[in-house]
Specification:
Layout lengths: L1 E2 L16 H13 L3 E3 L7 E7 L5 H13 L4 E5 L7 H7 L2 E4 L7 H11 L3 E5 L14 H9 L3 E7 L4 E8 L5 H12 L14
Parallel strand pairs: 2-8, 3-6, 3-7, 4-5, 4-6
Antiparallel strand pairs: 1-2, 7-8
Length: about 200
C-alpha cells in the first residue's frame, strides 16, 4: 500500500543527520511532485542500500530529497572527476566519497573493513554503476555485504508509479550469483526515468 514519504519510515537504529525542518520540507516537495512510498527502510545500525534503476541525473535529486526526508546519514561513492569545486564540497557534505575506477582493485575488502570497524554506517550504491544501458550489473555491493556481514536492502525509484519502493532485505549473502538473481527479479518490476537505459536479462 502506498503511503506518504516521511521520516517515520526510517527506524531509530539508522544513523541520522539532517534537521527536522529539512525533513518536513523535503517530504512536502516529494508529496507535491506526486511521489509516494511503498514499504519501509530496514531498521539497522549498518546497512547497504542498493538503488536502481539508475537511468537519469534526476535520480540524484530524487534520492537527495528522500535522504533529507528520512534524515539519513549515508556514505556513497562517485567518480573522482565529479568532486571539483563547487559541487565537490556539496557531495562530500552529504556523504560522497570520490573513487578512481582505474584504481578500484581491492576496494571491496577495504570498504568491508571500514563497515566492520564503524559503529553505524549506511552505504548507498547503484548496481549498474552508470546511467547507460549495461548488463550484467556490478555485484560489488553484494560482495561488500558478504565480506562485511551486513544486510542489503533493494530500493527502487519507480517513475511510472511515482513511488519509492523499499524492497526486500537480503539478510545474509552466501552466494553472490544467486543473490544477483534476486536483485534482477526485483528491479524488473521497477520503471526508471528512461526505461530503455535499464537492461535486465
Amino acid at each position: 500500500m502506498k503511503q506518504i514519504l516521511d521520516k517515520s519510515l526510517a527506524g531509530r537504529q539508522l544513523p541520522k543527520h539532517w534537521p527536522n525542518w529539512l525533513s518536513r520540507f523535503s517530504a512536502w516537495v516529494l508529496f507535491r511532485r506526486g511521489w509516494r512510498a511503498e514499504g519501509n527502510l530496514a531498521n539497522r545500525r549498518k546497512l547497504i542500500i542498493s538503488i536502481a534503476p539508475h537511468t537519469s541525473n534526476w535520480d540524484f535529486f530524487v534520492g537527495l530529497f528522500v535522504l533529507f526526508t528520512l534524515r539519513l546519514k549515508i556514505s556513497f561513492f562517485g567518480k573522482h572527476s565529479l568532486f571539483i569545486p563547487p559541487i565537490g564540497g556539496l557531495l562530500r557534505f552529504i556523504g560522497g566519497i570520490p573513487v578512481e575506477r582505474s584504481k578500484a582493485h581491492g576496494m571491496v575488502g577495504a570498504i568491508a573493513e571500514k563497515i566492520r570497524a564503524a559503529e553505524t554506517m549506511v552505504l548507498v550504491l547503484t548496481p549498474e554503476g552508470t546511467r547507460k544501458p549495461v548488463f550484467p550489473w556490478r555485484s560489488g555491493f553484494i560482495q561488500i555485504a558478504r565480506a562485511a556481514q551486513v544486510p542489503v536492502q533493494l530500493v527502487g525509484f519507480d517513475y511510472k508509479k511515482k513511488t519509492i519502493v523499499f524492497g526486500p532485505v537480503i539478510e545474509q549473502v552466501e552466494n553472490v550469483e544467486q543473490q544477483m538473481q534476486t536483485v534482477y527479479a526485483f528491479y524488473a518490476r521497477v520503471c526508471g526515468k528512461f526505461p530503455g537505459n535499464c537492461l535486465i536479462k
